[in-house]
Specification:
heterodimer, A: mainly alpha, two-stranded antiparallel sheet, 14 helices, B: mainly alpha, MetI-like fold
């Protein structure tokens, strides 16, 4: 910031002594800045900021997305949304998945990363295997699991085959189970990326620290508690944040496997929004739902930055500015 | 196992240590193999069942296939549906990566190495994109693409995808561009380099790791995208590979074996790329996610 004013002052001073060139240079520099910024700026404004602004704007209208905007509803869409049992239910499902991701999926990912960070024959192969689902598209994964989870299908047969037949459930049809099933498939697909994050974090912990602690007689548990875990702090905070934002917008896996069913039991906010907006053509209402989802995401992001990321010297999204 | 095992005279302490090490190895390997089985078996089921017939699968879901029965795979590969989706996905991914790289690196250069009023604000504007779920603007985006005539058009996927990739790409590129010493730029300027030629001839070649991270990230995102292609391709006449798998599975829902063959083939390109470039992909995604 101070750098800018300084260069500005220098330019102004030199401008008085040598008339034309600095002004021309400044204009040329502005030209370069404009030229280099314009493509990204136009793309970002047109396809991110404009849709975002329109989501807010449309949310105050009753509109099918086709004709002119004539039916102003004010905040009625928002009132309707908060009283809409299926929307509230979908938010609860998203929060359920979020909580499970943080308390089950993330610790498991860290545990796998800790195991893989030890030197043992085959660790590379295991790492390659555990990350593989992440590179396969969600849609393909979903189609495969849809078939695996059919009643009396492959999974049930396999459970029966290893003597766990009594564990068999109506994985997709039982409304009290279906969300857990979806969480399992999501974890199956996404745990690899968290694992890789933790592995990267662990690899950055200085080896000397471990050696020193080991010489001082620390056991494995103490080394984890007092070295690995604190030094993995920044990585953990990022991984948890990504997992939260991801959980809020779960779509493909559930849309393909259950489409939110049975009877809304596995519906997520994005499934409901797409359903309202595109299938029922309630664009105004769908926009209001989108804005609410966006506000939930934004609130979580800002709270997270305020209370969690601030522990890191760098890592907060806004701290990159400047 | 352990080299310092003495055949005689093992005292209690040492034998206990060897035992506990052995136990932890056994535990480690059983956990690893269990997890590996959970990952691999569904994929193996998919590949293997592609060789069977739907009737066989229904009669015994876990039966072993006749690996010479490749008719399902032949049908999928001969249908045109697979290849047109493959071509569509490839085109969209390639162009998305190119546009992302060009636009993000140009603006990241300005944000990293040029002083001007409003730079911090510009940067914050781009990082806003990371603060909330991108699915939030999917409905207005649909309407926008409709009014621009970009529905049922690959560009309706490419342009928004590139726009969504900008924030994370800029965040990866900017510190890298910034770390290149000013002396190099000064020397280049003295030699008559313009900003553009410095950017193109010096900065980009020197930033290869960051550039490849951005490219890998954009490729994976584009190749696996589902929501955006779903709303852009309103008819099943055109599809990306993920969309084609979904369409195929709804259209031929009775023919499990064919669906699994199609799904298997849809996985192949990504898995081949992954096995070839595992190190770069993992490093790139790890770095990208941490920065994001």
């Amino acid at each position: 910031m101070t750098g800018e004013t300084k260069t500005g002052a220098v330019a102004a001073i030199s401008g008085s002594s040598r008339r034309h060139r600095p002004a021309g240079r400044a204009a040329r520099k502005a030209g370069w800045i404009g030229l280099f910024t314009a493509p990204a700026f136009v793309l970002f404004v047109l396809f991110v900021l404009v849709p975002l602004a329109f989501a807010v704007y449309y949310s105050f209208w009753h509109w099918d997305g086709l004709g002119p905007l004539v039916d102003w509803r004010g905040i009625a869409n928002y009132q309707q949304a908060l009283a809409d049992p299926w929307f509230v239910e979908s938010i609860r499902h998203a929060l359920f998945i979020t909580v499970l991701s943080v308390v089950l999926q993330q610790p498991l990912a860290m545990l796998i990363a800790l195991a893989l960070s030890r030197k043992f024959p085959g660790r590379t192969a295991f790492r390659i295997i555990f990350f593989a689902p992440y590179v396969i598209s969600e849609a393909t994964i979903a189609v495969v699991w849809l078939l695996l989870l059919q009643p009396a299908g492959p999974l049930d047969s396999a459970l029966g085959g290893i003597g766990l037949g009594s564990f068999t459930q109506l994985w997709l049809a039982d409304h009290s189970i279906v969300l857990l099933t979806m969480f399992f498939v999501i974890t199956w697909e996404y745990i690899g990326i968290s694992m890789i994050l933790y592995l990267t974090g662990i690899s950055q912990i200085p080896r000397e620290l471990m050696e020193a602690a080991s010489i001082d007689g620390a056991n494995a548990r103490q080394m984890f508690r007092y070295i690995t875990l604190p030094l993995l702090g920044p990585t953990t905070r990022v991984a948890v944040f990504l997992s939260i934002l991801g959980s809020l917008q779960v779509f493909a896996v559930i849309q393909i496997i259950t489409d939110g069913g049975p009877f809304h039991a596995s519906e997520t906010p994005v499934i409901y929004i797409v359903h309202k907006g595109l299938q029922e053509t309630s664009m105004g209402y769908g926009a209001a739902l989108s804005v609410i989802l966006g506000l939930i995401g934004l609130t979580i992001s800002l709270l997270y930055q305020r209370f969690v990321f601030q522990r890191d010297v760098e890592g907060a999204v806004t701290s990159y500015a400047g | 196992m352990t080299p310092n095992v003495k055949p005689l005279g093992i005292d209690g302490r040492e034998s206990r240590r060897i035992l506990s090490r052995l136990a932890s190895r056994v535990l480690l390997y059983s956990a690893m193999f269990l997890l590996a089985a959970i990952v691999i078996l569904p994929l193996l089921y998919c590949v293997v069942s592609g060789f069977r017939s739907t009737g066989d699968i229904a009669a015994s879901p876990l039966g072993w296939p006749d690996l010479t029965r490749i008719v399902n795979y032949q049908t999928v590969l001969g249908s045109g549906l697979f290849w047109s989706a493959f071509a569509m996905s490839t085109f969209i991914a390639l162009v998305t990566v190119c546009i992302t790289l060009v636009t993000a690196s140009l603006v990241a250069y300005v944000l990293a190495r040029m002083e001007f009023r409003g730079r911090a604000a510009l940067f914050t504007l781009f990082t806003l994109g990371l603060l909330f779920p991108s699915a939030v603007m999917i409905l207005p985006l649909y309407l926008l693409l409709n009014s621009l005539g970009l529905l049922n058009n690959p560009w309706g996927i490419i342009l928004p995808q590139a726009a969504f990739q900008l924030p994370v790409s800029i965040i990866i590129l900017r510190p890298y561009f910034r770390s290149i010493p000013a002396e190099i730029e000064d020397a280049a300027t003295l030699d008559g380099c313009t900003h553009l030629s410095f950017f193109w001839r010096i900065l980009i070649p020197m930033s290869r790791p960051a550039i490849s991270t951005v490219a890998i990230l954009a490729t994976v995102v584009s190749w696996n995208a589902y929501l955006l292609p779903l709303i852009v391709f309103t008819s099943t006449a055109q599809a990306t590979l993920p969309l084609a798998v979904r369409n195929y599975s709804t259209q031929y829902s009775q023919d499990t074996a064919m669906v699994l063959a199609f799904a298997t083939l849809a996985m192949v390109p990504a898995l081949i790329l992954y096995l070839v470039g595992e190190r770069q992909i993992v490093a790139g995604l790890g770095a990208g996610a941490v920065k994001g």
